[in-house]
Design goal:
Radius of gyration of chain A: 19 Å
Structural class of chain A: alpha+beta
Strand order of the largest sheet of chain B: 1-2-3
CATH class of chain A: Alpha Beta
Helix content of chain B: under 10%
Oligomer: heterodimer
Shape of chain B: extended
Strand order of the largest sheet of chain A: 3-4-6-5-10-11-9-8-7
Strand content of chain A: 15-25%
Largest interface: A-B, 57 and 48 residues
Distance between the termini of chain A: 45 Å
Largest sheet of chain B: 3 strands, antiparallel
Shape of chain A: globular
Order of helices and strands of chain B: EEE
Largest sheet of chain A: 9 strands, antiparallel
Structural class of chain B: mainly beta
CATH topology of chain A: HIT family, subunit A
C-alpha cells in the first residue's frame, strides 16, 4: 500500500510506493510479462495465446483500492509493435477501452481523477518495451488537472476551448485537423516538440464523445505518433497524457485533450529538467514552438 | 465524495447500449462477454485476485486456460510489469 504525504512547500501530494523498487526492469525479449502465454511455457501476466487489448491491475501499483487504482493497458500481443504501428481499427478499439476504464474507474468512490497515459522509451523511464499504457485512478485531484481547472477560472471559460480558438486563429503552430480533432504545438510549449490533440467541440471526457469522434481521435493519434517517429527517423520517446474531466463528486468541467511530451530536442540530445526547471519551475526552451510545428508538419506529411 | 453518478446515471450521451458500469461486481464466468460499443468485454481474475479484462472486436480470442490462472503456481509466473 502506498503512503501519501503532502509537500507543504510545493503544495502538492507525494506518493511513496516503495514496493515498486522491485518491479520488473527491462527483462530480456524472451521474458516479457506482457507477451501472450505460449503453450508449454510459464504463463505471463496474460494467460492467453493471443489477444487484442488487455487491461489488468498493476502488480506493482502506485495506487490501489480502497485508495485509487493502477491498471496496465496492453495494446497488442505483438511485442515489437508500437502505438504508431497499430492499424487504425486497433487504435479505435483502444479509444473504447479508455472510455470504458474512465467510466468504470470514475464511478468508484475512491477515484477522483482517471489519468490515462503512456511512457514510451527508456528516456522517460519505460521498464517494459511491449507496447502498453497505464491508467492511474487517483484518490485525489492531482496538481496538473487542478492547474487546468484554475486556468478555466482565470480565463473565464474552458481554457482548452480558448487556447484552441487562439491556435486556430493564429495558424502558425497548427499541425493538422480532421472533422473532430485539432493538433497543434502550444504557444508556450514546455518540451521541444510538445504537441496537443484537442477535441474541437467541447467534450469533457471520452464518455461524451460520439462514436465517430472516437474514430477521428484515433486517426489523429496515429497521425501524430507516426509523424513523431518520422521526425528524427527513429522511435521517438514521449509521455502521452490524456486529460479529461475529474470524476469527483460535483466535479467541475474538463475538456478532453491529449498532450505529448517528447524529451528529445534533436535526434540524439535530451532536454533535461535541470536547475531552472526543477528549482525555479521555469522551462528554458531550445526550440521555438513555431519552428517545432514546421518540422512536425513536414514529418507528419512524410509519415502519411 | 458523495453524489457520484451511480451505475444507472452514468454519463453516456452516445445512445449506445448501457455500459457495464452497472455490473461493478465482476463476472466470474469469462465465457459470457459483455458488450461495450464495438467491443466484447471478458472479465477474469488472476491467481492473486487481480482483475484482468480482455477486449476484442471479434470472438476469435483464444484462452489457454479456464477462467482463472489459479492452477499456475506463483513461482512459475513471470514477474509483473511496471
Amino acid at each position: 500500500m502506498s503512503e501519501l504525504r503532502f509537500n507543504e512547500l510545493r503544495g502538492e501530494p507525494v506518493a511513496y510506493a516503495i514496493h515498486r523498487q522491485d518491479r520488473t526492469f527491462l527483462p530480456d525479449r524472451a521474458h516479457c510479462p506482457l507477451d501472450p502465454t505460449r503453450p508449454g511455457e510459464p504463463p505471463t501476466e496474460i494467460p492467453l495465446e493471443s489477444f487484442e487489448i488487455v487491461v489488468f491491475d498493476n502488480r506493482f501499483p502506485a495506487f490501489e483500492a480502497p485508495a485509487g487504482a493502477a491498471e496496465v493497458v496492453v495494446y497488442t500481443d505483438d511485442h515489437d509493435a508500437s502505438l504508431a504501428s497499430l492499424p487504425i481499427e486497433r487504435v479505435e478499439a483502444l479509444m473504447w477501452v479508455w472510455r470504458h476504464r474512465y467510466q468504470e474507474l470514475g464511478a468508484r468512490e475512491d477515484v477522483e481523477y482517471v489519468y490515462i497515459f503512456e511512457n514510451r522509451g527508456v528516456e522517460v523511464g519505460v521498464t517494459l518495451h511491449h507496447p502498453h499504457g497505464q491508467i492511474y485512478g487517483y484518490p485525489f485531484l492531482p496538481p496538473v488537472p487542478a492547474l487546468e481547472l484554475a486556468a478555466d477560472a482565470r480565463l473565464g471559460r474552458c481554457a482548452p476551448c480558448v487556447l484552441l480558438a487562439r491556435e486556430r486563429a493564429d495558424g502558425r503552430r497548427l499541425l493538422f485537423e480532421n472533422d473532430a480533432v485539432s493538433a497543434y504545438v502550444p504557444e508556450a510549449a514546455r518540451w521541444p516538440y510538445e504537441a496537443h490533440l484537442a477535441m474541437r467541440v467541447h467534450r469533457p471526457s471520452l464518455t461524451d464523445c460520439e462514436p465517430r469522434e472516437l474514430r477521428l481521435l484515433a486517426e489523429a493519434l496515429l497521425a501524430l505518433v507516426r509523424g513523431y517517429d518520422a521526425l528524427f527517423e527513429r522511435p521517438l520517446p514521449y509521455v502521452m497524457a490524456v486529460h479529461q474531466a475529474p470524476t469527483c463528486a460535483g466535479s467541475p468541467d474538463g475538456h478532453l485533450h491529449v498532450e505529448f511530451y517528447p524529451p528529445l530536442r534533436t535526434a540524439e540530445k535530451l532536454k533535461y529538467l535541470a536547475g531552472s526547471e526543477q528549482g525555479a519551475g521555469t522551462f528554458i526552451g531550445d526550440v521555438l514552438p513555431e519552428e517545432a510545428a514546421e518540422g512536425l508538419r513536414e514529418a507528419i506529411e512524410r509519415a502519411r | 465524495m458523495d453524489g457520484k453518478p451511480g451505475p444507472s446515471e452514468e454519463r453516456d450521451e452516445t445512445g449506445l447500449e448501457a455500459a457495464p458500469v452497472a455490473s461493478r461486481e465482476r463476472s466470474s464466468d469469462p465465457a459470457r462477454p459483455e458488450r461495450y460499443g464495438p467491443l466484447d468485454v471478458t472479465r477474469m481474475r488472476k491467481e492473486d485476485g487481480r482483475a484482468l479484462i480482455v477486449y476484442s472486436r471479434t470472438e476469435r480470442t483464444e484462452r489457454t486456460e479456464s477462467a482463472e490462472s489459479a492452477d499456475v503456481p506463483r513461482e512459475h509466473q513471470r514477474p509483473g510489469p511496471a
